[in-house]
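Exercise 4. Each item below gives a protein and its sequence. For each, produce the structure-token representation.

Item: MFS family permease (Rhizobium laguerreae).
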Amino acid sequence: MVVLAGSASLAIAMGVGRFAFTPILPMMLHDGVLDLSRAGELATANYVGYLVGAVAAMAVPRRWDHTFVIRLTLVTTILLTALMSASYAEAWVALRFLAGVTSAVGFVFTSGWCLAQLSGTGSSIGSAIFTGPGAGIAVSGLTASGMTVLGLSGSTAWLVFAAISAIISGIIWKTFGKSSKPSDAYSVGAPTRASGKVPKSEMPLFAIAYGLAGFGYIVTATYLPVIAKNSIPGSPLLTVFWPLLGLAAVVGSLLAARVKHGADVRLHLTGAYLVQAVGVALSVVWHDAFGLAISSILVGLPFTAISFFAMNEVRRIRSSHHSRYMGLLTAVFAIGQILGPPTVGAIMDRVADVDAGFDLALAVASIALVVGAALYVLMILLFPGERERQKSRTTGPSNLKGEAPRSSPM
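Answer:
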């Protein structure tokens, strides 16, 4: 029940609070209530809010009841989503900003609380919590597809998503009762390396690499339905690419939990970045429906797996207070996302053709992911010893009281 509730909560926080805008965007463009420039402003507002929310989550006192915060984020997401249906365009920027704040807080608190309840079980089932964002994207995409076929407006779509979120929240509400374990019980007390020391320069390099992932995927995540509409206008498959990305993310998060634990996590991150880089680049050179489908799958597969691997790596680099460093990485990731829509806008202002503008923006995003992968390779060369540390933890007494299972993403 904890896993299902956590996954559903993340589906609302991320799939609706952050990414429902993506499949609704073509509907709003068709309604004539905004253009691509205005859409970029709304997307940026949401990503700035996500940054603010990540920082706010780091500052929340530990004594606060985390289940209360989770419930609050569920209610707030429902209200903000419903308010987007109002015809007050001046308020949309503020609403998307607040939705971003709520998404980040919901992500951090839901992840922390759920993993705290599952700590000490020795099971990898906790990784299934992170199927939530992908599932939310898939459901929102399929729902938007149906509404598009029915000719419904963007304002109606916002109300439908609010209603779906309310129903799901009602189902999982009781699970987020009074905490049976405090979220700070999910901690790691052992040294992070066999030597017990981690170079101070490793965390900054890791944060930069993780931030590049935020920039690398966000162009696709924000504009995929619009890119598809421009590439294959009139195709009956226009609305399938976004939910396909979400389904691939669900599969990717499940596969990530099954990778070999003895290998260096930075190798997994390098591979995930390169897969996503290829997916982003494919939509530049392969403009038909099949190419867009492959691109959606390759971008989606590492979508939540990257976060899963990265939070595991945080446990290695910073064994104590790693929840704060989780918030730090979320904030850096958000900065990368924030740069995405303005980059697209700046490129569009300098090119005559929309398709050429998207191709250039996607190429830049793909390069960013390759650079991020290269940084992980550099870290492996500069800071070796991960394999030895993993072996020592496997053979040593790792399941101390209160310690998280090795397979968990924090």
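Check: Confidence is low (pLDDT under 50) at residues 183-196, 390-410.
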